Amino acid sequence: MNEPIPAEDLERRVGGEIGVSRWFEIDQRRIDAFADAIDDHQFIHVDPERASRDTPFGSTIAHGFLSLSLLTAMGKGVLPTIAGEAMVINYGFDRVRFPAPVRSGARVRARFVLSEVTRRSDRELAARYAVTVEIEGGGRPALAADWIILTLLKEQVNAA
Fold first, then answer.
1. Do residues 141 and 135 touch, judged by C-beta distance below 8 A?
2. How far apart, in whole angstroms, are the C-alpha atoms of residue 129 and residue 93?
3. DSSP labels, 2-69
4. For the whole model, what pTM was predicted?
5. Which residue stretches of the chain have pLDDT < 70?
6. Nearest CA-CA partner of 149 in 118, 121, 123
7. pLDDT for 95-117, tens place per residue?
């Protein structure tokens, strides 16, 4: 994990790339486990034979929500920790798109750009990240999203 930085340092990084995650393999085992977790067993995800025969993908593909759910893991070690944080909350998304399918066996990683930091109160910072999930060797991203992460601090933030 990164060393904690003052909130003011995070604000100075707006507009810049924060980092790129490690690669994550999206194998059929992971896709099947996700299908079980969310009860979505559509053949394009879980039936390799039929997916290769009856889809333009040539194989099964990951659920878009699988790519989305991996953002937390992809952000570990990449997204900054704020000095004095009590907790971090996934506040949600303003925009999510899935431009390209992730085929079984592909590897993906996330690129994080800090687009905005808002001081919601003396103890709350909202950081908005433009996130792109890249597919290794692919031309289009698997995911593009505006992700908002809320940091609750133990102490109040100094005024900028």
1. yes
2. 10
3. PPPB-HHHHHHTTTSEEEEPPPEEE-HHHHHHHHHHHT---HHHH-HHHHHHHSTTSS-B--HHHHHH
4. 0.91
5. 1, 156-160
6. 118
7. 999 999 999 999 999 999 999 99
